[in-house]
Amino acid sequence: MSAASRSTLVIALAAAGALSLSACGGGGGTKNQAASSAAVAAPADSGTLTLLGQASGNKPEPLDTVIAAFEKKYPGIKVKSEYLPIGTSYADSLRTRLRGGNQPDVFYAAPGAGGLTSLLNLADAGLTADLAKQSWTKGLVDTNARELFYQDGGLWGIPFDRVVVAQVYNTTALKKSGIEIPRTMDELLTACKKVNSQGKSLLSLAGASAENSGLFAVALAANYVLADQPEFNSERAQGKTTFAGSKGWRSTVQAIVDMKKAGCFQKGVEAADIPQAAPALAEGKALSFVIPTGALAALRGIAPNLELEAHPLPGVTAEGTNIYSSQSDALAISTKGAKNGAATTFLKYVATGGGDEVYAKATGNLPLKGTLDDPALSGISGILADEKHNFPMINLPWPNPEVYSDLGKGVQGLLTGQQSPADVLKSMDDAWKQK
Description:
Layout: H1 3-21, E1 47-54, H2 62-73, E2 77-84, H3 88-99, E3 106-109, H4 119-124, H5 146-149, E4 150-151, E5 154-155, E6 158-159, E7 163-170, H6 171-177, H7 185-197, E8 201-204, H8 210-224, H9 232-237, H10 247-261, H11 274-283, E9 286-292, H12 296-302, E10 308-311, E11 323-326, E12 330-333, H13 341-352, H14 355-363, H15 378-384, E13 390-391, H16 401-416, H17 421-432
Parallel strand pairs: 1-2, 1-3, 8-9, 11-13
Antiparallel strand pairs: 3-12, 4-5, 6-12, 7-9, 7-10, 7-11
């Protein structure tokens, strides 16, 4: 893989991860009763609208692919798009524009309330319009994701894809290893030892990245926490439990220690960032990487002959294995855009007119309903069809970004041996109390 290809792959993978976790970045908002209740204009078949989004690292931008399909269906409407770098650059620019006179009509936001671009924080500040009275939004949001999109009876944005976090394997490297896909954690630990003896690792992990380390721990929590305590977040919010007091969370962080001892991760995992961890999967030095399936398109774009397959990260038992299938990307209408019927038409198309399917094909994420006809996803199609084993990402409703940040830093501490599982959970409980 050339240096240029490696760089492009890293950017695209980082973007895919950031999009699925963006509700946890930045800083928490302050509750404000200024939320806009302005009526959103009825859909219109003509006009111009502006869209502001986060740069994905893919070329063309996936949302531009959606826009091209939209403009073909609605030739009387033109969309002017602009993309800014993921992170504070986007968050700061978005909030500045929404408060000033240069508002985009439509903009990308993150569900929940944990970050600067989170829907509920923007709604509190009166910066996004209420879509609840639009008939086409009925039933659009999953029941288990309503708290991420609705507040005070208002719907402050709409989901436009479904992000799935899975263990993505390099099929060629997997076959060469001679192992079967692990279905339980014990099987995974055994496989780790075998692959390690071959000079490779079963898993690639960007241990130096708090975001990627946190994502890995969150993926484990789908099995260890939600399998036995599916209402953990609400119970934690009510003070009925804590991270330190949860058997599932204690098992989650202990599993990372056990995996490190079994040689599951690449050598030097604690110092590896995305530029080292991501290409290892494409090059076959690591058999798998726990990432959002939205990264599949980026991987294929750089290595067209790369065979990939996604599977659930296994739990203690096969029956207790879960997966994240989250409506965790959103589009919203600004108070200025509320007066623009073309903006309403665009969101309606994205949510109910096929735009979500166009976006899914461009990224590797899933449409709002159903799955893509992608052979790489066949290994998760069964579990995705079983609602009992599907959950929104556990971190999305957390009250501030520090909880997730401390989890990611805690995993780094576990990898270096500088923190114990108890240290990590205490830090998360302390962060939960911050406002």
